[in-house]
Amino acid sequence: MADNGIGTSKLDNSTFITQSNLECKNLYDYLKTRPPNTLERLYNHPAICLAVYRELPELARQYVIRILFVEQPVPQAVVASWGSQSFAREHNYVTKVLTELNVWMEGSLPGGLIGWILSPTFKRNLKIALLGGGKQWSMSSALEPDKNARDVSFLDTYSSERWECVLHYMVGSQQQEGISADAVRILLHAKLMKRDEEDGSPVITRQGFQFLLLDRQAQVWHFLLQYLDTVEQRGLDLVECLTFLFQLSFSTLGKDYSTEGMSAGLLIFLQHLREFGLVYQRKRKAGRFYPTRLALNITNSQNKNAPLLEEDSPKGYIIVETNYRVYAYTDSNLQVALIALFTELMYRFPNLVVGIITRDSIRQALRGGITADQIIGYLKQHAHPQMLAADQKQTLPPTVVDQIKLWELERNRLTYHEGVLYSQFLSQADFNVLKEYAQSNGVLIWCNKEKRTLVVNKNAHDEVKKFWKKYSKGS
């Protein structure tokens, strides 16, 4: 029998599909990729400890709060006994999360038992965040009254306009203001845009199409993560920028904060946040700034009741009819450009755009990387109040929803699996033994009895290989 490691004919296709889709990380996914020394520096700040604690799964938060004031390791068996055995999978998962985030660590007990104890740095600063005390944050609110004070409605309008400049640039619609070369570099780094092969100008990518249909909070968080990947190249301190971002998420909307005491790197970071609409500052040297709604609770994905911007609120503008026509009551070039991603526009009036959903328009959107669920979700999110009437069980016409999904299924007729090819068996008996082993373990992808060839799941290759060696020695 020959083990052909190169027999992964579908490996390249599977890898291509994975890399072409937009990967939206949450706070846990991002922090677990940071080295331990970076996490240790981050946990020196109460704001970060509190944000991490809020983002933990509910069971993990229970574990942390129960051992927060315990000064010695708690036996692992005791921690496991706090939950029912039917939730053993959840227990294993949260144990993995807390370990990867360096929130807790293993500790030895008398008698050789192993227990869990919170990281000293995380424990100390989480106590400060929950109970008060500690050093003053770099964002100080000790300021004289601002003679040019801004109210919440002004900040909402400002943040919406600044963020929409980025989205306008991505869809290539007409706009009055452009974005800086620095923001363009972030879009290119995030692979939301790429350089055109002919003229070198930035054009939107498959991931960029998917990005446009995300909700506003998810867009900002993903964009900031891509920015943070480049802060060290700019000569900025990642920990310092992350700390300020977390502190910003706990700020009060409509309140001004002083820039006094900020380092030169933080002041540069503040100007970048100003461009993206996360903070408002009248002048660079104004000495104060106002956090906007975009910056509030930015890391809190579990907070479904976070305040929304006006354009993200339930007051939608889209009506979808059973004949596949779409009516968008808007005069925003950005919203029109988003509708055009998956519809064929028919008419445009000063405050109304009429389009139709067709097989070709949906297939074009699918080729751009947009999924059927994203299209349906966008239409639901921005549905007109008349479509949200209480007597209607479904927001969108079921015929339209089902047809969009069917058009997507037309393109998803093949499923790719990474596999390893086994061939050139010396006898039919050898082939049958390995085939039965792979089949019984659920790792057999394909087999051919006549040619004595089979393909097993790539992840199970090592186990299958060990079994074959053991069988070969025994026979």
From TrEMBL:
Cellular component terms per the entry's GO annotation: transcription factor TFIIH core complex; transcription factor TFIIH holo complex
Principal place of residence: nucleus
Domain Transcription factor Tfb2 C-terminal, first and last residues per copy: 402-469
Record's keyword annotation contains Transferase: no
InterPro entries: Tfb2_C, TFIIH_p52/Tfb2
GO molecular function: ATPase activator activity; double-stranded DNA binding
GO biological process assignments: nucleotide-excision repair; transcription by RNA polymerase II
UniProt subcellular location: Nucleus
Keywords: DNA damage, DNA repair, Nucleus, Transcription, Transcription regulation
Quaternary context: Component of the 7-subunit TFIIH core complex composed of XPB/ERCC3, XPD/ERCC2, GTF2H1, GTF2H2, GTF2H3, GTF2H4 and GTF2H5, which is active in NER. The core complex associates with the 3-subunit CDK-activating kinase (CAK) module composed of CCNH/cyclin H, CDK7 and MNAT1 to form the 10-subunit holoenzyme (holo-TFIIH) active in transcription.
Protein function: Component of the general transcription and DNA repair factor IIH (TFIIH) core complex which is involved in general and transcription-coupled nucleotide excision repair (NER) of damaged DNA.
PANTHER family membership: GENERAL TRANSCRIPTION FACTOR IIH SUBUNIT 4, TFIIH, POLYPEPTIDE 4
Record-linked NCBIfam families: tfb2
Family, as annotated: Belongs to the TFB2 family.
Name the UniProt record assigns to this protein: General transcription factor IIH subunit 4
Species of provenance: Sitophilus oryzae (Rice weevil)
